[in-house]
Model the fold of this input.
Amino acid sequence: MMDFSLNDEQLSWQNKARDFSDSKIKPISVPRDQIEGGFDPFDWSVIEEGSKLGFRTLAVPKEWGGPGTGFVTQALVMMELARGDSAICKAFSQNWKWSHLIVNACNEDQKSRFLAPFIEDHRYMLGRGITEPNAGCDNRLPPKSDPKAGYRLKAERDGDDWILNGEKTFIANGSVGSLFFIDARTDPNVDIIHGGTLFLVPKDTPGFRIGKIFNKAGWRFYQNAELIFEDARVPNNNVIGQVGTGSVKAAGGDTTGGDLFGDLELAANAVGVCDDANDLAMSYASNKMQGGKKLVEHQLVQLAIAEMNMLTEALRSFVLRVAWEHDQGSRSANGVLMVNYSTDVVLKVTRLNMDIHGALGCRSNPRVDKLVRDAMIWCHLAGDSNLRLKAFSKLN
Done:
C-alpha cells in the first residue's frame, strides 16, 4: 500500500531546506549567475553553511556519521534547494550520488579512509570522472566486444600502484572536488565492460591536476572541469571492487550510486526549477497591467499558468513515486521515464514563464532568462532523451 503522507522527519528536512533556500541561496543566485565565467571565485560560504545543516552529507548512513535520510527526503530537499538555485542544489546533491557509491561499493578500509574526511570537512566535495573528449554516450551503452568504444584513460600496474595517463572532461565538481571516482582502462584490448576499472583518486594525488574550467550557458555555479592525469600514481588499495569489472554494479554491487539515484536527482531538481518559474509567472501576471486589466485576468495567460502548474504537479507526483519505490527497495525502470519526462516539463514550464513575462519582463527580471538557460541543461544530462530511452528498452 502506498502512503505518500510525509512523516515528521521528512517535513523537518523539507522546511529546513526551504528556509535555507530562501535566506541563503536565492539572494546570491542571480548575482552569481552574472559573474563573467560563472565560476571565479567559487562561493564556498553557501556550501559551508549548507554543509553545517547536513545538506552536503544527507545521503551518508547514520552508522558512518551522516543523517541517513531516505530517498523521499532527499527528493524533497532537492526540490527546495533547486527552487533557490538549480546549480547550487546540484553542487550539494552531486555529493549524495557518490557517497551512495562509497557506502554500497567500497570496502571497509576505503569507507574508513574516505567517509571520515568527507563528514568532517565542509569543503570536501565528490566527483566522478567518466566522460572524455572522445568518449561520451558510449560509456553508458558501449557496443559489445568493441575495445575502441568508451573511455580511454589508461591505467598500468606498477608494483603496488597504478599509473594513470589521460584526460577526463566536463567533470562535475571538477575544479572543487576533493575526491574523484575515475574510470580507467586496465586492459585496452577488450571492451570497457571487461577491461575497465574504477579508482578512488584524491585531489592531491601526484601527477593529477585540474585543467580547463568550463564556462556554460546554464548551471553556472556548478563547476565542470578537465581532469588531467600525467603518470598519476594511485595505490592498488584505491581500486573499487575487482580489476576489470568495468562497471559500478559489477565492482561493488551498487544499486543506488549510479543511474537510479542520478535519474531521481535530475527530476527532483527540475521540480524546484518549475516551482520557481510558477512563482515568478504568478507574481508577474498578478501585478502587470495589460489592456486595462491585470495580465492574470487574460484567458491565454490563465491557460498558460494552469498548464505550468499541471505539468509541475504531475512531475512532482512522478518523482515522489519513484523516490518511494527506491525507499521500498524497488528497482524498476521508472526512473528513466521520469527523467525524460522531467526534461520535457522543465523546458516547457520555463519557456511558458518567459512567454508570460514577454520581452520587457525578461529584461527587467534576469531570473526568468536564467531559468530557461538552466533548463536547457536537461537536454544533455546523462545522455540525451534518445539514449535514455534506448537504456530503458534494455531494462525491459
